[in-house]
Amino acid sequence: MTTIRRFEDIQAWQEARSLVKQIYALTEVGAFSKDYGLRDQLRRASVSVMANIAEGFDCDSNLEFARFLGIARRSAVEVQSLLYAALDVRYINQETFQACYEQANKVKAFVSAFKSSLKNALSFHTPYIARSTSHLLYAYHLLHPRLHNPRPSLPL
Question: CA 79 from chain center: how many Å?
């Protein structure tokens, strides 16, 4: 089991970083480099994926982290949509489109899996991220002694 101690340890973030490198490489050459609107939007969307994963990692709750992962996933979809625009105006060929599109798909898959893990932890009322790649640890009872008495008496 690999423990996640820094956002750089998250595989979804690592894959998002690879996507950013691909996007910057393809947008710095030819006519694409001069189309500032499309170039910059595509770059911002790709950077947004890895930035939201990192920012979410530093959140105080799984719920908040899951929200940032949702934003990261939607940014990856934005990258895919913008790749179609680049293909349609012939800034990139089909092969380059396919490689970048597949990398964005890979990022989406990792982000979705990580978000699902967080949601599973939320269903068990876990108030923090266990930061494990194989599974999340459920230690709610360590932080909340009421769990040992599931029916606490209500104040009158």
Answer: 13
